[in-house]
Amino acid sequence: MGNPVVIIGSGLAGYAVARELRKLNTELPIVMISADHGGFYSKPMLSNALSSGKTPESILNGDAVQMASQLKISIRTHCRVVAIDQPGCAVTLVDGEKIFYDQLVLALGADQVHLSLLGDGIEKILTINDLDDYKKFRDALAGKRRVSIIGAGLIGCEFANDLATSGYHVDVIDISAQPLGRLLPPAGGSFIQQKLEASGVVFHLNATTQSVDQMQERLCVTFANGASIETDIVLSAVGLRPRTQLAVAAGLSVNRGIVVNRLLQTQFSNIYALGDCAEVEGKVLPFVMPIAHAARALAATLAGKPTPVFYPAMPVIVKTPSCPTVVSPPDFSITGKWYVDADKDGVKALYRDETGNLLGYALLGAATKEKNNLTAQLPPVLM
Ligand SMILES: Cc1cc2nc3c(=O)[nH]c(=O)nc-3n(C[C@H](O)[C@H](O)[C@H](O)COP(=O)(O)OP(=O)(O)OC[C@H]3O[C@@H](n4cnc5c(N)ncnc54)[C@H](O)[C@@H]3O)c2cc1C
């Protein structure tokens, strides 16, 4: 038997490939290497865990030992890969150990973007991108009441809803004029804003966060216009950046993410990437559905049957129960325009091209019931 398939990363992408590959080949040796605990959990659950009564412990579906036995793979936990020796087909761990591979899968995820802010409280700013971050956040919440969230995007709004409905005072700060500015036209933004405000969320829009300072036990967030708010916890949710450093150092093509073709293959035929770290035919799609499709295709390829990935339309449900919302973001590089139908019960926004073809949508409130019908009319994301 040759060297194993080595998967770097134990997030949804790493586990999805391992699981799909096992279905196709029960013998192939698979080694998963993870910088973290290596347990399996559903990351999207982190942003509605409080209101659904979940703890960090109950979110974990299986630890690394259980997962290794279930999938019949070997899992190296708390092991950071520091280099890829592409010509030698090996990865180097932080302690210098080398692990050789026949095929390498990069499922490295993405890093939270950190704003460069001033103030002596910036060390206290929290971000949540994995279960360990979430544990820290839940520990920090103990006995506290006020949370300020920087960023009114998908993750910021989901946490705001979760915290507000769980009894916390929540301030959300964003530089833009509306929440979910990248996903919703203005009518949709103001609808979700009103619904979240009705749940107790306080928005500070068109506001640039400038500094975070310690004020005895509390923190003070100051905006560029001089206004400030007092809070117990500052959570930053201003976006993600694909983890590409390893790939860059190994000479792999990197653009916004690690560049791969429809086979999820980098320019080196036995190195692949998927999930939040990957850029598939120019698209970086940091969501669960693309991972499921990519993992199935990649597993077939790794098992010996080269299989290009196909992405159908993949709507994203925004987990804001105070304002049910589903979006299928259009490819904004195609010229088109929003057609919006809004009333007190909901917003139906359809993005159409010049000839009237539906390219994407945003549905809020009562309009979400049209999801299936509209999704069927959308073009695939990747043909
Ligand atoms: C709070 C939150 C809510 C979300 N909600 C939704 C949702 O509702 N719907 C949706 O579609 N998407 C949602 N997402 C996005 C979705 O969860 C991600 O797209 C997905 O989990 C990414 O999985 P991944 O495996 O690519 O990356 P990750 O989960 O980040 O995994 C990366 C893995 O790589 C490991 N790693 C990185 N570098 C190294 C190294 N050098 N050596 C060894 N190991 C390394 C890490 O330790 C980790 O195990 C949400 C994200 C967040 C943060």
How does this structure look, described?
The protein folds into three domains: 170 residues, FAD/NAD(P)-binding domain, CATH 3.50.50.60; 123 residues, FAD/NAD(P)-binding domain (3-Layer(bba) Sandwich), CATH 3.50.50.60; 52 residues, Enolase-like, domain 1 (2-Layer Sandwich). 22% of the residues lie in helices and 30% in strands. It is built from nine helices and 26 strands. The strands form eight sheets. Strands 5-2-1-9-20 form a five-stranded parallel β-sheet. Strands 22-23-26-25-24 form a five-stranded antiparallel β-sheet. It is globular, with a radius of gyration of 22 Å. Flavin-adenine dinucleotide (FAD) binds next to helix 1 and helix 8.
What is the subunit arrangement here? single chain
Q: Tell me about the largest β-sheet.
A: 5 strands, parallel
Please, what is the CATH homologous superfamily of the largest domain?
Answer: FAD/NAD(P)-binding domain
Low-confidence stretches: none
N-to-C span: 36 Å
What value does the Rg take, in angstroms?
A: 22 Å
The percent range for helix content is: 10-25%
Broad shape: globular
**Helical segment count:** 9
Q: Which ligands occur here?
A: flavin-adenine dinucleotide
Mean pLDDT: 97
Count up the domains: 3
Output the CATH topology of the largest domain: FAD/NAD(P)-binding domain
The level-1 CATH class of the largest domain? Alpha Beta
Overall number of strands: 26
